[in-house]
Amino acid sequence: MTKQGESSEEKYRAAGYERVEPKATYAPWSDDVAFLRVNDVIKEHTLVDRYRCYELWQLVAQAMKTPGDLLEVGVWRGGTGAIIAAQAARRNRKRCVYLADTFTGVVKAGSRDRYYRGGEHANTSVEHVGRVLNTLELDNTRVLAGVFPDETAEQVAAEDGLCFCHIDVDVYEGAKDVTEWVLPRLNPGGIIVYDDYGFYGCEGVTEFVNGIMDKTGLVLVHNLNGHAVIVKAGNSTRD
Q1: Per-residue pLDDT tens digits for 166-209
Q2: Residue 182: which CATH number?
Q3: Is residue 12 in a domain?
Q4: Which has fewest Cβ within 10 Å: 26, 43, 104, 180?
Q5: Any idea which of 1-10, 37-46, 87-96, 200-209 has the lowest mean pLDDT?
């Protein structure tokens, strides 16, 4: 509990957080023309900063060395979904990018979630996402409206499995349910990215990811830009 007069820094530290300022200076996004073109279109349609967007851009390229389609759960206004779809289209337009969102805000908030109560980030629509995708002339996507996986997972054909999943659902139960659906369908070499791992207010997602860190068959990296990245190293995901 925050004490009266407690500073933001003290509040963060009490919850196990602090401001992270890496000293690295390599900036490959600065002259990646294809990325910059896409980012210029989507930057007003996402809360994800340029550094994480570029990491998604790079990880999609790596993941597509593995067979399978791609999935994002937690699309909001379509910015990161367009990043994923644009990179996927550059590599192989036959791969489908599924973009799943309730379009009515956050769901499944619970006691493990410090900030979210449900209904946040509802200022979006299927139509808005469609306009963003159309601006970039992306025809390799399928938008799923409803709670995933509960209501829309059956719409994911993915006959060759999945190679990539971006999970941006903000809360513990949402991250858990999506992960449990994705992992058996994720091909070896496939990648899961959790957007909410590194941020105060999303402690539920951090707790969930930390809880699966020791599963066999998974390699987990905490990237200091705020992502947790999982690579499926084998077929087994049992404890």
Answers
A1: 999 999 999 999 999 999 999 999 999 999 998 999 999 999 99
A2: 3.40.50.150
A3: no
A4: 26
A5: 1-10
Quick check: bond before 149 cis, omega within 30?
Answer: yes
Q: Give the domain range for residue 55.
A: 25-232
d(CA 211, CA 33): 38
Query: Does some domain include residue 136?
Result: yes
> What single letter denotes the amino acid at residue 3?
K
60 within a domain of the structure (yes/no):
yes
User: Is 239 a member of any domain?
Assistant: no
Q: Which two tokens stand for residue 15?
A: 């919850």
How confident is residue 15, by pLDDT bands cut at 50, 70 and 90?
Answer: confident
In three-state form (DSSP H/G/I as H, E/B as E, the rest C), the secondary structure along 77-138 is CCHHHHHHHHHHHHHCCCCCEEEEECCCCCCCCCCCCCCCCCCCCCCCCHHHHHHHHHHCCC
How many domains, in total, are found in the chain?
Answer: 1
The per-residue DSSP string of 157-225 comes to: --TT-EEEEEE---SHHHHHHHHHHHGGGEEEEEEEEETTTTSTT-HHHHHHHHHTTT-TTEEEEE-TT
Provide the b/e sequence for 152-177 (b: ≥16 CB within 10 Å). Answer: bbeebebeebbbbbbbbbbbbbbbbb
Question: Which residue in this structure is represented by tokens 């990811």?
Answer: 209
DSSP state of 51: H
